[in-house]
Fold:
Amino acid sequence: MTVYLDVVWLLNFLVDMMLLLLTKSLLHMHTHIGRIVFGAFVASLIVPISILFPGTFLTTVIGKVLFSMVIIMCTFRIVSFFHFLSSLATFYFVTFVIGGGLIGIHFLLQQHESIQMLGVLQVQHGYGEPISWLFVVICFPIVYYFTHIRMDKHVENQLEYDQLCQVTIQLKKKQLQTTGFIDSGNSLTDPITSHPVIVCDHHFLKQWFTHEEWNQLEKAHHTLAFDLIPEQWEKHIHVVPYQGVGGKRSFLIALRPEKVTIQMDDQQISTNKVLIGMQFAQLSADQAFHCLLHPHVLRKAPAQSA
Structure:
């Protein structure tokens, strides 16, 4: 049997790239297309390795898992161990779903090819035969499209009002962008200015401050000694009283931004009638977002078509 290594390698590369794109979509990650291509290339290396070195360690269960870890590290920016495990689990989930769809179509059409999961998709019998690969070429995009559409619909039904969006904040003439989560349960409003309060975590806010300034603000937050607030930041700081869980009253250090811009689908919402509450910890365990948005900002601020 003639094996067309270049054709098989190319097809595996394209399949792996589509799997990684779907994984990226489910994780809501902003990954450069170059890293997706590189990750797909690394994943496709299993083809020449399996042919040139049959019985290699990478064909064992442990080898497959380790190889999948390498693929994830090459493709996505890893910010924490939890984030890494989440990415790896999602990658396997996508692979199994797509592989299961192909197996279902295979049995439905009563084809003779068998499909094996190796952490990446690969046809085992008829390796490189035009008919077997024609089956994958035709059916894979169909299964991919159906899976992508159904998952997007599921996410829309689950999230409903709560969703992720891009947020740009301008403070002291410096603009930075992050991902925000529209929290329908956020009702924090400043009683003096009546401005809604959005909350940003330390991962995002630290970019405006020096290390010394941030330590002073954090100490002021924990001790409520507001005289520790750096002098150069006093005119940009606002203290918001709030009532926490159990009725405990406290104060939140907030920033007065020059402008906050929220990108919602094809609409852009801009306002300066908002305060930014400072969270001296992370908001999301997997770093999916760094800002909790107040729903009133979206309802009251003027919207423009992007």
